[in-house]
């Protein structure tokens, strides 16, 4: 599914069913030695997807470490993003010479828990949600897009981006029956990147709802 919202040049892999014999890379085991079973499965599954994506890129399927704020540490010259939710794990990777960053997120297609929306959204976003009578869980879509925005932002800046620091607007692809489209994340704080590239002011991404899941992806060039 995730491949449907990624551009050419980005390698992706996903797991909808978890192989019971899936084991962590030996060099990653220490990162989850004390983790509960669910955390272990999410960690192992997402990194398994990342290694499959690395092979698609012609790279060695190496161990993937963990950096600041849990950021996955991909091989030199590779950028990417991992995601997981109940029943789903995925990775999207590309070469840094082609794109600067990638951010993906997956969420169950269901409403946000009571009381969460106000803490993860801006007033204009809540106004848009209130005016929309879609049967889709657009509140969760908004949250999913915010998560993808953060994942695209942090590796470039190594700075926190709060839910209130990006204003997201959506468009719907009418040819899809309303289940997919694009989104625009306007960044509300200075976006100087550590790579010395053009400062970040916004991201553009795609979204898809299907199979009980919401998927969002940003690939920033």
UniProtKB/TrEMBL annotation:
The residue ranges of the 4'-phosphopantetheinyl transferase domain are 101-173
Q: Which cofactor does it need?
A: Mg(2+)
Q: Which GO terms describe its molecular function?
A: holo-[acyl-carrier-protein] synthase activity; magnesium ion binding
Q: Does the keyword Ribonucleoprotein apply?
A: no
Q: Give all residue intervals belonging to the 4'-phosphopantetheinyl transferase N-terminal domain.
A: 27-93
Keywords, comma-separated and alphabetical:
Magnesium, Metal-binding, Transferase
| One GO CC term, this protein | plasma membrane
Annotated binding of Mg(2+), by residue: 105-107
Residues where CoA binds: 39, 47, 83-84, 105, 147, 151, 161
Which GO terms fall under biological process for this protein?
Answer: enterobactin biosynthetic process
InterPro entries recorded: 4-PPantetheinyl_Trfase_dom (IPR008278), 4-PPantetheinyl_Trfase_dom_sf (IPR037143), 4PPT_N (IPR041354), Enbac_synth_compD-like (IPR003542), P-Pant_transferase (IPR053566)
Q: Protein name, please?
A: 4'-phosphopantetheinyl transferase superfamily protein
